[in-house]
Fold this sequence. Notes:
This protein is an alpha+beta fold.
Amino acid sequence: MTHSLLVCTTCASTWQNGKKVGISGGETLLKELSQLQQSWELRSHFEIRAVSCMSACSHACVVTFVAEGKYSYLFGDLPSDAENIPTTAAAILSCAEIYCDRADGMLAWKERPEPLKSGVIARIPPL
Ligand code: FES
């Protein structure tokens, strides 16, 4: 594993009396990504990891691409409703393939699929 896809599982949660109820949009997104990953040709290069928050909570759902020596990308405003989740998950893996292919991880706007085209919250330079 040389790359990681971090998926916030707290995003798009429903809260009642200070407690999370039901399955969050982030958990649904993670499940969809994990299912697609099983037949994904890059599955041995990309770890998909659940995280509890990446401090972009007002932009749910949120994922991040990270790899040593590459730019890190934090994406938000990714749809996680039942109708859009397959498209969102497929777009994330499609963009991850481009990220994996780039030596520095740079992702040009025009090559990113929707909804990741307009969803960049941060691009962090490599160490
Ligand atoms: S709850 Fe998902 S980024 Fe904070």
